[in-house]
Amino acid sequence: MDGFGVRLKRLRQDRNITQSELAAQLGVVPSAVGKYERIPNAYPSVDALIKIADFFGVSIDYLLRGTKVPPSVENNISGSLSNSPFIQANHGGVVINGETGSNVLSPEAMELLHIYETLGGRDRLKLLNYAVELERSIE
Asked: Residue 120: CA atoms inside 13 Å, Cβ hemisphere, count?
């Protein structure tokens, strides 16, 4: 089974970026990225791990354990709404089943979507978890 370093290297190479370029994005020295990729039990700080997940649009669970989450949850975590069967990001607008968001969403829903789009990976996950808990409390 591939470890964190192998997955990180694969993600980096898929994006065709160097260790130095990734290091600059993370705010670490290039040798740190090399260490993460080469040494089996070398892991970044939690802050750097979050930045890596956000940068590559993957979950932290995937980075650490190689676990893929269901696509609908992955879309919400990474913020990629384009694959959602219900919502597509469309240059700042929303399209739901072929109709623009302003025609089918309430002002409150549009505001929530706007807030969601401004959040980073960890905060999006918090919002998603809160929404799930709120939905459960209603049932």
From this structure: 9
Please give the residue range of the domain that contains residue 101. 71-138
Interval 87-116: pLDDT, tens:
433 444 555 555 554 456 677 777 877 787
Domain count, the chain: 2
User: Which residue, among 12, 113, 1, has the nearest Cα to 58 in the 3D structure?
Assistant: 12
Which of 65, 95, 118 lies at the terminal end of a domain, its last residue?
Answer: 65
Looking at the DSSP bridge assignments, the partners of residue 100 are 95
pTM of the model: 0.51
80 is written with which tokens? 């990629």
Within this chain, do residues 51 and 96 fall inside the same structural domain, yes or no?
no
